[in-house]
Every structure is written in structure tokens, then in C-alpha cells.
Amino acid sequence: MTAAESKGQTGVEFIRMAPTLLKISNLSKCYRLGSSNIPVLERLQLRVAATEMVAIMGPSGSGKTTLLNCISGIDAPDSGSVRLGDRTIDYTSEVERTRLRRHHIGMVFQFFNLIPTLTVEENVRLPFLIAKEDNPQRLNRVQSLLQEVGMTQRLHHFPSQLSGGEMQLVSIARALVHAPELLLADEPTGNVNPQVGRSIMRILRNTTAHAGTGVLMATHSPEHAAWADRVCFLKDGAICAEIEQHGEVQNAARIHGKLLELGI
Ligand SMILES: Nc1ncnc2c1ncn2[C@@H]1O[C@H](COP(=O)(O)OP(=O)(O)OP(=O)(O)O)[C@@H](O)[C@H]1O
Ligand SMILES: [Mg+2]
Fold it and tell me: Which residues line ligand 1 (CB under 6 A)?
């Protein structure tokens, strides 16, 4: 039973009452190339509640990865603020940015970012090894997550011995192993077949329902965006439209229609 069901609430009521987990205010970011500036994000506003799953859709180059990197502290915005829980991220502190990724945020990257010289099991243990928190209980957690993503047969394989879809599943296990408050997933189904894509969506949904993690996912797939509670459309540097999906897996046709209407 999910937390919402145990309180007799619908998904949407539960999310409306949930505290804000992530609040992005007036976030702007441009890249400098030589003497020219490429504006990517312009005074972007976004809120994700605890337990909410939000999908971001937008054309290639619209700034989805840039946005996720600014939230995780991999990159820094030029202006604006990012609040996670009760803290405003201090981009001037490298220590804080690292702590954020180690303890509070999980990341699934567009191109996996697995360490090629570590096995599947070691890659998933990595957050604990880096934080010097590796112990037998942690190993149980690693194994149960690898079981959840269906990769227990591949514990001792190296990334080069896995398919793209398998690497994505391992990277999802790694992102969730330290039970983050917020999971940032950059096209988590970009390289997988439809069946694995659905498994990944099920894992992300379960994470919001049972672990209370907020999920922010960039995707080009209306079918996968349809699993989210809300879809936000990113165009010209800002969120230009949203669709609320009432916490249910809806038909992707509405999302297809909105993409056509927005010219995305
Ligand atoms: N380090 C960088 N230096 C200069 N320009 C960059 C840099 N990183 C990204 N950009 C530019 O910023 C824009 C946004 O890139 P970003 O990767 O965020 O797009 P995206 O929405 O994730 O695209 P996709 O759907 O293809 O993954 C692009 O025009 C890209 O060329
Ligand atoms: Mg991207």
C-alpha cells in the first residue's frame, strides 16, 4: 500500500498536500562560447513536491540536461535560486555541492557514467565507498536494488560487458542506493527497448510511492512522460506549459497533442 492509499487519499490530493521538496526560482544560465553568449535557461520556475514524479519535455538543446546539472550542482546557474528541502544550494561551496550529490540527490545520466574498471556490484556500491559508509548492511541494500532492477545475474560483469539497457538499469540502482530525497533522471529510457522502458518507469513510480523520493525526469518519450504526475514543457528557456495527470498512468495522446500544439 502506498503512503497515499494508507491515508485514503487520491494521488493528486496527496501530492497537493505534500511539502515542497524542490523549488527553483528565476533560474538563468547561459554558456559562453568565445565572445558570444548562448542563453539556455531564462528565469525558469519549477516546483517538485515530495513523492511527486515530474517529467520535463522539450526539444533537443532546450536545456533539460543543463537544468538537471544546475540542480545537482554539477553546473552552476548564473542567477536564481534552487531550494532542496530546507536548504538553498550554495553554489560557491564545492563541499556543499559534493555533499548534496552524496547524500540528498541521486542521478541517472543520459550516458550512464558507469566506471568502466568497476564491476556492476562495485558501481552500485560506489556511493557508499566514496562516503566511507560501506558495511554489510550497505551490501544488502546494493544487492536488493540490483534484484529490483533485475541485474543479479550480472554482479561481476564490467560495464563493457553489458548492453546499453543493462547499463541504464545499473545506473538507476546506483542512483537510488543511498535513498536520495530527489532523483534526477536524464532520459533514463533513451537507450532501452519498450519493455525495459516500462520496467524503469515502474521502478521510478515505486520510488515515489514507497520511498517518498521526488523524481524529476527529462524525456523525449510521451509514453514514458505519461507515467509522471505532471509533465512540464521546456521551451525558450522556461517552462511554457504543464499537464497534470492526477497521479495516474494516462494515455500519452494528450502529451503528443501538447507537443504538437507547442511545436516541440
Ligand atoms: N558546456 C557547454 N558549453 C557550451 N554550450 C553548451 C554546453 N553544454 C550545453 N551547451 C548548449 O546548451 C544548450 C542546451 O543543452 P542541453 O544539453 O541542456 O540540452 P537538452 O535539452 O538536454 O538536449 P537533448 O534533448 O539533446 O539531451 C545546447 O544548445 C548546447 O549546445
Ligand atoms: Mg540532454
Answer: 31, 33, 38, 40, 58, 60-66, 110
